[in-house]
Amino acid sequence: MTLVTISLSAGALLGMAVIFSYVLGWANKAFHVEVDPRITAILEALPGANCGGCGFVGCGDYAEAVVVQNAAVNRCTVGGASCAQSVAAIMGVEVTETLPFRPVVHCGAHATDKLGRHEYRGEATCAGANMVNGVQGCIYGCLGLGDCQRACKYDAIHVVDGLSTVDYDKCVGCGACAAVCPRNIITMTPFKYERMMAILCSNKDFGKAVKDVCKVGCIGCKACAKACSLFQVSDNLSSINYELYCRDYTADLKTAIEKCPQKRIVLVGKPSAKHLEATRDMAVPELLEAEFKTTVDDTEWWG
């Protein structure tokens, strides 16, 4: 009796297995979605970092967007020009020349420059500290707790003496640091040259209020705007028009740097030997390893 029961059970299971295998095989064919081979080819050409710097969730989404949505073939900041060429070849298109984007930290205040600081005992993150009133006097400045440093997969940004500082030798422009900054003071900026001028401040208060909370913040005096037409002061904060930024403004930029009482106009980026020689006699206050950007409209970059 037991042997018969076992045999019946085994037979029933075998029959069910055959039936389910048939059903699954039919479903696989009936509901199969053909994948464009170009998506697979592009995915293989991408570096696989899944950093999101292209604006998509990961490399797979970006590969599909290139094929299905005609997304630009040069949006992978990690892969760079060679990756863009490979993707363009797969799609049979030409690569459009674009500028590399790099992060700029819109704050130049180190720990000793920040006034009105109080001991913070909460979660040691910028996101946590940003929810607490009175952590530091400047409500715009870098909190220096390293959210950006932890988000970077390339070890390209570190908190140095209370200030997030970009290492441009390692930075690939993925934008992870800008995405996690709760105060939105790290912005991705198009770099026309290896080094760019930037205004390292985000404080929009009036001059006196700025000086009450920071030793080096922009006071909105408009000295830079009077010296060079690339600058504009809005909401008590100076910014640079990167749409017009070019070497033709070198002399005026030099004057603007010299006129800035707070010395907040700073060269950022990776210096080349040629650039170092060209700026050897310029009164540059400091050569910080950090980048810059603030607001943007549909046509012009300002920082």
Question: Would you give an account of this structure?
Answer:
This protein has 303 residues and is an alpha+beta fold. It folds into 2 domains: 37-91, Electron transport complex subunit B, putative Fe-S cluster (3-methyladenine DNA Glycosylase II, Chain A, domain 3, Orthogonal Bundle); 101-288, Alpha-Beta Plaits, CATH 3.30.70. The protein is 34% helix and 13% strand. It contains 11 helices and 9 strands. It has helices at 2-30, 37-45, 59-68, 80-91, 126-129, 147-151, 176-180, 207-213, 223-227, 250-259, 273-278; strands at 101-105, 157-160, 163-166, 186-190, 195-199, 231-234, 237-240, 265-269, 287-288. Strands 5-8-9 form a 3-stranded mixed beta sheet, with helices on one face. Helix 2 (37-45) packs across helix 3 and helix 2 (37-45) packs antiparallel against helix 4.
* Widest sheet, order of strands: 5-8-9
Order of helices and strands: HHHHEHHEEHEEHHEEHEHE
Helix content: 25-40%
Rounded radius of gyration (Å): 27 Å
Main sheet overview = 3 strands, mixed
**Subunit arrangement of the protein:** single chain
Count of helical stretches: 11
Architecture of the largest domain, CATH level 2? 2-Layer Sandwich
Poorly predicted segments: 278-303
End-to-end Cα distance: 86 Å
Number of E strands: 9
**β-strand amount:** 5-15%
Structural classification:
alpha+beta
**Principal-axes shape call:** elongated
CATH top level of the largest domain? Alpha Beta
Mean pLDDT: 83
Structural domain count? 2
- CATH fold-level label of the largest domain: Alpha-Beta Plaits
